[in-house]
């Protein structure tokens, strides 16, 4: 699974930056075409849900999606599946 | 088999509603309309309907609108002060094209006024009472029989045109007891259904969109905001607002000929009484006593939309006389449409005009 | 089984809410709870009044009734009692519910009509530009309380408990998991379920009350939310509860007689 921010919906409130336990979301720096500074993703393959949703058959964590007031965060199926090297930080 | 009964006007109105298939009543008691609610409270649950006492008239009309959107025929009954409280939500019902019936048993106003006395002081309020431009339907019974017949008819008009429809009765008719013939069944007209693939607020030439009740999978968004044909808010586009308000206005106004319901007596007369509601009974008595073909009578059963063409039936009219239980509200409307003088005959305080009173005004203007 | 995203009217997104507004979060949590119930879109109706919160049903792909200011519960009562087969969910705000709609609120709780009421309490009239509402805390700034609000604020959840609702809970737009669970419990409980959600309004509340950034408001909610169990414990110990705290959690769950329960 792949974590995606829908730029057509995001209003740049950075709530995802605040809540992600893996600090995958980082405050963006450049405004997009709509003048909104959309957060950027830092090594999104670290996201538990990206890695394990298919295995567990349910959404894990998912707090960023739940709190996103603009319904801009979701996960997309990856085709074809790409293996990720995941560095677990302690 | 139809049956004959001796019944009060308010009870007859409730019976008319039940016969028309009314299955929801939002209640808040107010004199002199309460007998309608009391009768519905007894009868509606047995008919498989819902009777709910609400916390105020704002709530009662709101619950009626909610129930109407589930597809039920829904109504409430009230009088002046309660009618005033309902105004905002009645505007909402106009904007959202919600079919419903309100029976207003009018009493003396302004304010709390005369709770147990009759008046016709809400005739302009039912047409212009809520803010913004709107068109509604108002019908005016003058007997217990008509309380039954016209309440049933009000549901048909409301459903046919998708507009709040008012039975503008008063304390005299509401509390009067008369002989009434209750038919086995009444004619019912159903709401125009929303065609497959059609948008919920898109209307054809008649200006009336199809109705899709809640729970039928059409996912209708109903809002009092200015909305487009999908029902989505569109509050800043001048054209969208213009088109919507004009349509809401025209769908009622342009149908006034097919809705028209009036009685003409002595069309060749030169002096013509124009009445609605109980003052028509006094004029009928006067005509009966005098047997004078020089005195005409136009009695309106549908007052709004106003059937101005009915006035043309009196080609030789020299004067229109308008006995009303108010300061002359509908006289102004008649004045707008005729060149002849219009003489208001106001009567306040709760009593009807006597035939003698009307006769003296008649003689003074012949 | 639907997912929360299936319930959105995607052709209307993005919605009108300001950047960082908590109302969108409350929509997510409500839809997640509803889709978790296995409810069908065709048999669910959303009702709302007027205000920011009340725009929510317009973004949900079901039958929905966006009504007049304060009257949502009266409309919803009509819908539910006329057709008990429909699931009714009401979105409302603090001004809508507690000020102009206060009478309908207490009577809906008393009647215990089977529906779920989600109140987005941002402690301000947001849509009209930030005027003081009945839930604006004492001393807080708004455009109509320029010297600080002089009135005591309403505790809506306690009011619902006193008025007789069968399920009452309060959470915040920060506590998304707990909020979703609370709404789900509310949906399952026959009778009126009232879930008050403290939401951030950075534009009209935070800006005037030293919480200019969204993160300031979230931080305030996080640090001032006091779990009801903890509050009860502190009270029983006689420990004073710090100023400005509000309780979160499940205030009541009971089985008073309810109206309009699906037959």
Supply the number of helical segments of chain A. Answer: 3
Order of helices and strands of chain A: EHEEHHE
User: Average pLDDT value of chain B?
Assistant: 97
| CATH topology descriptor of the largest domain in chain B | Rossmann fold
Would you write up a description of this structure?
Chain C: This is 2-oxoacid:ferredoxin oxidoreductase subunit beta. Chain C: InterPro entries: 2-oxoacid:Fd_oxidoreductase, THDP-binding, TPP_enzyme_TPP-bd. Chain C: Residues 50-197 form the Thiamine pyrophosphate enzyme TPP-binding domain. Chain C: Pfam families: TPP_enzyme_C. Chain C: Keywords: Oxidoreductase. The complex is a heterotrimer of chains A (90), B (366) and C (263). Chain A has helices at 15-19, 48-56, 63-67; strands at 2-5, 25-26, 40-41, 73-76. Chain A is of the alpha+beta class and 90 residues long. Chain A has one domain (2-76): Alpha-Beta Plaits. The longest helix of chain A has 9 residues, at 48-56. Chain A starts with a strand and ends in a 14-residue tail after the last strand. The relative contact order of chain A is 0.29. Chain B has helices spanning 9-19, 34-43, 57-68, 80-96, 125-128, 144-161, 171-175, 238-253, 256-259, 279-290, 329-337, 355-364, and strands at 3-8, 22-27, 50-53, 73-78, 100-108, 114-118, 137-139, 164-170, 177-182, 221-223, 262-265, 271-276, 295-300, 302-304, 319-324, 342-346. In chain B, 35% of the residues lie in helices and 23% in strands. Chain B is globular and about 65 Å long. In chain B, a hairpin with a 5-residue loop joins strand 5 (100-108) and strand 6 (114-118). Chain B is of the alpha/beta class and 366 residues long. Chain B has two domains: 1-259, Thiamin diphosphate (ThDP)-binding fold, Pyr/PP domains (Rossmann fold), CATH 3.40.50; 261-364, Rossmann fold, CATH 3.40.50.920. Chain C has a single domain (21-252), classed as 3-Layer(aba) Sandwich (Rossmann fold). Chain C has helices at residues 23-37, 72-82, 94-100, 102-111, 156-163, 176-188, 214-224, 228-237; strands spanning 44-48, 63-66, 87-93, 116-121, 167-172, 193-198, 225-227, 246-253. The longest helix of chain C has 15 residues, at 23-37. Chain C is globular and about 50 Å long. Chain C starts with 22 loop residues before the first helix and ends in a 10-residue tail after the last strand. The B-C interface holds B 23-24, 26, 50, 52, 54-56, 58-60, 62-72, 74, 88-89, 92, 214-225, 232-233 and C 9, 12, 41-43, 45, 47, 57-58, 61-68, 71, 74-83, 85-86, 103-104, 107. Strand 10 of chain B pairs parallel with strand 2 (63-66) of chain C, so a sheet runs across the interface.
